[in-house]
Amino acid sequence: MDEEQKVIEWITSELEPKTYTLQNYPVYRSGKRIVDKSGDYLIVYFHPLLKKVVYTFKGIEDHFFIAHNYC
């Protein structure tokens, strides 16, 4: 499974379908920006040094969380 597939798999396993808009987010490696109806967003990407899927939220982009199931 490549990096982008891991990112997509985490998104589809953790988020309710049809409750968000999925956008490419090329700032990060295999990055995806998930926007909800209120305009808040989550960014999910593959961290190249950790070699893990990580995510961050609107307003705290300088911090990230490890997606433990997709390392």
Question: How would you characterize this protein structure?
Answer:
- The protein has one domain (3-70).
- The protein has a five-stranded antiparallel sheet with strand order 1-2-3-4-5.
- The radius of gyration is 11 Å and the shape is globular.
- With 71 residues, it is of the alpha+beta class.
- It has one helix at 3-14; strands spanning 20-24, 32-36, 41-47, 52-57, 65-66.
- It is built from one helix and five strands; from the N terminus they run αβββββ.
Main attributes?
17% helix, alpha+beta, 71 residues, 5-stranded antiparallel β-sheet
Q: Which sequence of strands runs across the widest sheet?
A: 1-2-3-4-5
Number of helices: 1
Low-confidence stretches: none
Q: Count of DSSP E strands? A: 5
Distance between the termini: 12 Å
Structural class: alpha+beta
Gyration radius over CA: 11 Å
Strand content: 35-45%
Q: Give the helix level as a range of percent.
A: 10-25%
Average residue-wise pLDDT: 91
H/E element sequence: HEEEEE
Largest sheet: 5 strands, antiparallel
Shape: globular
The total domain count is 1
What is the gist of this entry?
With 71 residues, this protein is an alpha+beta fold.
Could you outline the blueprint of secondary structure elements for this entry?
Blueprint: H1 3-14, E1 20-24, E2 32-36, E3 41-47, E4 52-57, E5 65-66
Antiparallel strand pairs: 1-2, 2-3, 3-4, 4-5
